[in-house]
Amino acid sequence: MRLYNRSFVAIALSACCVSAFAPSKHQHATKSAVSHSAAQSTFQSPSFLTNNLRNNFQLSVATSEICASSVTRPNDIANPWEVHKFGGASLADAGLYRTVGELLITESSGRLMPADDSEDGEQKHSGPIPTMAIVSARAGMTDQLVAVVDSALLDMNAAESALTKAVETQLSILKELAPPTITDEIEERMLKDAKDILSVVQSLRMIRSVPPSVMEVVTGFGEIWSAQTLYAYLKHKGVATAWLDARDVLIVRSEKANAGLGDKGSSSSTGGVTPLYVESALKMEEWWNGVGKKEGVNSEDIPPTEAPIVIATGFVATSDSGVPTTLKRSGSDYSATIFAKLTDSARVTMWKNTDGVYTADPRRVPEAFSIDSLKYDEAMELAYFGAQVLHPSAMEPCIDGNIPVYVRNIFNPDFKGTVIQGRCTSLSETNKAGKVVNWRSKKGEIPIKGITSVDGVSLLTLEGASVIGGAQVAERFMGSMAGAGIDVLMVTQASAESSITIVVPENMGQAALRAAQSTFELELSRSNVNGISLTDKSLAIVAIVGEGMALQSGVSATFMSSLAKANVNIRVIAQGSSERQVAVVVDGDDASRALRAAHMAFTLSQTMVSVTVLGATGKLGSALIRQLNEQRESLSKKMNLSICVNAVSSSKKMIMGKDGKCLVTTSDVNEMLDSDEATGLDMHALTMALKADVNPHRVVIDCTNDDSVADYYAQWLNSGANVISPGRRAGAGPMDRYKEIREAVSSNSVEWQYESSVGSSLPVLSTLRDLLQTGDDVQLLRGCLSGTMAYVFRTMDENTSFSEAVRQAVEKDFAENNIREDLSGVDAARKVVVLARELGMDVSVEDVVVESLLTDEIRNKEYTGTREEINAAILEDLKSLDEPMLKRWKEESDNGRLLRYKFYVDVATGICQCKLEGVDNKDTLYRLRENENLIAFETSRYTTSPLIVKGAAAGPELAAAGMFADLLRIGRGFSAST
């Protein structure tokens, strides 16, 4: 560190006092009227210098004792400076450079002030505003220049070609924006820069490596060329403008020697780079009084209705030893706030391609939305944990002066975006505020501001070092990371075994492992340390951030519960001591699902259930989709629940929504399955898509009643999806498959709902479960479970034959697709098996004693044709049964009884049966209506009279309602608000 004596400090501060960027007494009073919230003293510019000197040189110099005067801004402009920053995405082509230029002209012309800020309460115009724009390289330029350097090691012709392409693209944009009288000089400078770059990279083949300083020098030209390009446009528009090479002004010190550019998008890439504000302020004044006067931005000739616009390069700087350097990748935001501090700006606006800082990455969480306001601390936490809108270092220069940072959308400039300002309440202050309360008790208040993630991390774990001593282990372990230059993102420690786990960037994992193994080499050889391991799978950090988390219970529980419901496994947990964030490490493949699950859990967005409907074109599937669409708005309002059908299939085709987006918003599924986007039904491909679906709450509804589909249930459940099945193929199918499905349910905290498989919309299974779970002893179940049989034997008489009654049941959609399954008793037997298995009985369909109403000839006959043709043929053959069935009906009728197809499940004997028998008027089935099911529960508690569940249960509408109810049961479990 360079040492300064007290006289030099006084000279430096005195020089800053006469900076043209400093406001006068009159001007500072105006500053608050244009939304600067830090009106502290008559002269404010040196305050940052004082704080910086206190921090770095242990000196305390009072601002008021050093500065007694100040110099006005150009043309006595009353308003303070404002800084605008534009990233590469905002400067991709000539059209966008024009957009940026026009926006700067508009912003510098001033704005209407709120009436509350005016002395007379009237809305007034602020007047012109001195404006500085910090620009990044145009989109893709930095990567192109990196490629130039990398190519030079192998092929200079390739390097030269890449450089020529980069320069020519920039020049073509430049020439679209201004005439040759302005661009010729800039073009000449750019071409000279290109020659300088080639001369630098030509030497790389000799040394066979790329020194970090070379990469920084070369890549910095992207910003330099971009600034001159925007300058040319503004010059052409007649604006008082100049461009500033930040390397001439911004002086920094880097704690990490030869750190290079850093990783693109890294949350720690500017770490260790410290602006030297004293030197930078002196350089700024030198530039202002030199280039500024020459270019006319520091001039009294500027019309009183205009303000100067200075275009400064982001990203680049000069080290304290005079070497060109950078603020590392993603560091242009940092440049903007540093210059805001140097100019004592009223505000900084970061122009992005999003409407501010979002509650989550909208590319991964479509329901995310723009946050109105954040505190500096919250913004830094979000940025540190991966939010790409801002860099964490960018907040630091604004904190001392409480300079507000606005994040706005260059493509939607009318939107107010996000404002970042103010500090969070300290934990000690929060502790004084009162007792801990559950966050849900504060209706309408959400404790977090956002959810974010860091992809591509690894876990490094040191295990079983208890014999060494915990404090020593931690010191040596963390020291090894610091010595190797490893960025440690999270730390957790288990004191019982002196085990420490740290989270590091994946690309630093092997270096971290080697550093730890070297440090504990002796202990490893003596087995004093069990081992040091590095995960071989890419992981991700997911964090919730918000000041409102402090002293509020239930926040972490809500977070963890949401991940469990989304079947996301947590590898590491850490909570910041400030109680502003809780972070977990999860598998990289689960990161998007975790983000969406947490976002929904805190009611930052509606709870969305991602639904796949198989057999969507059948009567049952069509009825379900119709009901879902009819209730969509009601579910949204009453339950804060959104049902998103994003995959449907028929027996031959399927179609899936892209990126997990909703597919079905109308009932016309057939039209979609007939479109070119539909593909052949492929259950394996559908299963893979289901596993990859980032929606945290996934449900498959199987309307097919197909054994081959039921074979996939366990896979879906093991992947974290829930299953609803109105069919009986899974519940009454092979016992091995049934047990596999049950095991998948219990192992993955998911649900298999099949209430509608027994009694359509009747609460048969839920009633049975309630009885068992409350300790009741169920002894016998009896009743009628076949809507078809109920209709047939309620309808047939002397005037209506058996076959005619069956035909009517088919027409009313009461029957199965294959009506022989109803009439043979197989369908009723499957329902009996489902009930018996709920009671813990090891029963299969073959164990049920079933009376078939069909002859062997009809039951075994091969029918061909369409479903309608087959049913017509069966109905024709059923006429042969009319006479014997009528005879049986008369026999029972003569004795005061009615025919009913009845089932029994006798728990004591283990006997299950389905048979046609006569019932008298004392039997509960005697008054069974034509579309009803009835189940009587005889239990140890219901002895004098059975518990009866009875109601309409035939037809696709009722079955669909049962599935809908199953879906809502699952949805309520997902929703944090119910």
Automatic annotation (TrEMBL):
<keyword id="KW-0808">Transferase</keyword>
<dbReference type="Pfam" id="PF00696">
    <property type="entry name" value="AA_kinase"/>
</dbReference>
<dbReference type="InterPro" id="IPR005106">
    <property type="entry name" value="Asp/hSer_DH_NAD-bd"/>
</dbReference>
<keyword id="KW-0732">Signal</keyword>
<keyword id="KW-0520">NAD</keyword>
<dbReference type="InterPro" id="IPR045865">
    <property type="entry name" value="ACT-like_dom_sf"/>
</dbReference>
<dbReference type="GO" id="GO:0046872">
    <property type="term" value="F:metal ion binding"/>
</dbReference>
<comment type="similarity">
    <text>In the N-terminal section; belongs to the aspartokinase family.</text>
</comment>
<feature type="domain" description="Aspartate/homoserine dehydrogenase NAD-binding">
    <location>
        <begin position="618"/>
        <end position="755"/>
    </location>
</feature>
<dbReference type="GO" id="GO:0005524">
    <property type="term" value="F:ATP binding"/>
</dbReference>
<keyword id="KW-0521">NADP</keyword>
<keyword id="KW-0560">Oxidoreductase</keyword>
<dbReference type="InterPro" id="IPR036393">
    <property type="entry name" value="AceGlu_kinase-like_sf"/>
</dbReference>
<keyword id="KW-0028">Amino-acid biosynthesis</keyword>
<feature type="domain" description="Aspartokinase ACT">
    <location>
        <begin position="542"/>
        <end position="602"/>
    </location>
</feature>
<feature type="domain" description="Aspartokinase ACT">
    <location>
        <begin position="461"/>
        <end position="520"/>
    </location>
</feature>
<keyword id="KW-0915">Sodium</keyword>
<dbReference type="InterPro" id="IPR036291">
    <property type="entry name" value="NAD(P)-bd_dom_sf"/>
</dbReference>
<protein>
    <submittedName>
        <fullName>Bifunctional aspartokinase/homoserine dehydrogenase</fullName>
        <ecNumber>2.7.2.4</ecNumber>
    </submittedName>
</protein>
<dbReference type="GO" id="GO:0009088">
    <property type="term" value="P:threonine biosynthetic process"/>
</dbReference>
<dbReference type="InterPro" id="IPR054352">
    <property type="entry name" value="ACT_Aspartokinase"/>
</dbReference>
<keyword id="KW-0418">Kinase</keyword>
<dbReference type="InterPro" id="IPR001341">
    <property type="entry name" value="Asp_kinase"/>
</dbReference>
<dbReference type="GO" id="GO:0004412">
    <property type="term" value="F:homoserine dehydrogenase activity"/>
</dbReference>
<dbReference type="GO" id="GO:0004072">
    <property type="term" value="F:aspartate kinase activity"/>
</dbReference>
<dbReference type="Pfam" id="PF22468">
    <property type="entry name" value="ACT_9"/>
</dbReference>
<keyword id="KW-0486">Methionine biosynthesis</keyword>
<keyword id="KW-0791">Threonine biosynthesis</keyword>
<keyword id="KW-0067">ATP-binding</keyword>
<feature type="domain" description="Aspartate/glutamate/uridylate kinase">
    <location>
        <begin position="83"/>
        <end position="409"/>
    </location>
</feature>
<dbReference type="Pfam" id="PF00742">
    <property type="entry name" value="Homoserine_dh"/>
</dbReference>
<dbReference type="GO" id="GO:0009086">
    <property type="term" value="P:methionine biosynthetic process"/>
</dbReference>
<comment type="function">
    <text>Bifunctional aspartate kinase and homoserine dehydrogenase that catalyzes the first and the third steps toward the synthesis of lysine, methionine and threonine from aspartate.</text>
</comment>
<comment type="pathway">
    <text>Amino-acid biosynthesis; L-methionine biosynthesis via de novo pathway; L-homoserine from L-aspartate: step 1/3.</text>
</comment>
<comment type="similarity">
    <text>In the C-terminal section; belongs to the homoserine dehydrogenase family.</text>
</comment>
<dbReference type="InterPro" id="IPR001048">
    <property type="entry name" value="Asp/Glu/Uridylate_kinase"/>
</dbReference>
<dbReference type="GO" id="GO:0050661">
    <property type="term" value="F:NADP binding"/>
</dbReference>
<keyword id="KW-0547">Nucleotide-binding</keyword>
<keyword id="KW-0479">Metal-binding</keyword>
<dbReference type="GO" id="GO:0009090">
    <property type="term" value="P:homoserine biosynthetic process"/>
</dbReference>
<dbReference type="Pfam" id="PF03447">
    <property type="entry name" value="NAD_binding_3"/>
</dbReference>
<keyword id="KW-0511">Multifunctional enzyme</keyword>
